Amino acid sequence: MPEAFIIDAVRTPVGRRGGSLAGMHSADLGAHSLSALMTRTGVDPSAVDDVIMGCCDTIGSQAGDVARTAWLTAGLPDEVPGVTIDRQCGSSQQAVHFAAQGVMSGTQDLVVAGGLQNMSAIPISAAMLVADQYGFTTPFAESPGWRARYGDVEVSQFNSAEMIAEKWDISREDMEAFAYASHQRARTAIAEGRFANEIAPVGDFAVDECPRETSLEKMAALNPLAPGGRITAAVASQISDASSAMLIASEAAVATHGLTPRARIHHLSVRGDDPIWMLTGPIRATEYALKKAGMSIDDIDLFECNEAFASVVLAWMKETGAPHEKVNVNGGGIALGHPIGATGTRLMTTLLNELERTGGRYGLQTMCEGGGQANVTIIERL
Known about the structure:
Belongs to the thiolase-like superfamily. Thiolase family. It holds the Pfam family Thiolase_N. By secondary structure, the protein is α/β, with parallel strands linked by helices. It is built from 13 helices and 10 strands. It is 37% helix and 18% strand. Helix 2 links the parallel strand 3 and strand 4.
């Protein structure tokens, strides 16, 4: 089977809610990473077969196939198409999968994969907020088929995070210690310039602005999101704004355009789990991916497991045996933010750069997604 290679990857700095990127139109936000990617690779943009970008809540400035409008907003060729996809939090990781699959099928040679999200302008689950105007708690809540299968149970990521903490016996103190480590790791990474190679500054904005100077004492003082619960804002990912993009190429394109690949897509898969539990998907998906790839957890040098909530990653580490010293070593969504549509390629961009910095060979990325889904990508540094 033909190989799929990562040629380059780039992202904007991540802006906090209401921060440096809040006023940027979503198309311009996506365009920034696309333009930077084309400049960095030196590839003739008219040679790109397709542009696939993840984005959730595609209303307002994110409506109307924002992948296509972002490409055009960047001043790039009319003849190159674009498509926007939504696999919830895993949208841009899925964009990488579709891009790699296009290359591995032999039907495409150069595909841009990425994602964007301006959560300051378009609130999380904005489509659901619109549905609320019509009396729906979720867009699918009134489906007779859904209700026949799952009943009237509320589908909520916050409920899921609490359920996971209870089932895996993860205390609030455990989660706060994990969240504190995320901030410390992110602040260290920024201080040491580990993100410099992957960030395309937006004007004078060049450094992720979500990591906080916090303490375990400050976290302990917060009220839980639900009465008597363990989940607080301190152990959840931050609402934020960003875009990210990477170029996926075939072996033929590498030769034709004189490119130097940075990594190879070693494995890609996606699995589902119980949608009521929702956030447990990475556990099953990781087990499946390692079995399909003929690998063990010990074969992986670095992991990125998205920090939607601390309980998600802690349960995943308990089940898979992934050691914390190899997981989210530069911080995760709790510290760096989780701009939903952009997070998949943001994580992969960071994973690629960290493999290069440390000399690791294999990196595994996974993330929980709405509907109880999870993508897994294993990349091999070249």
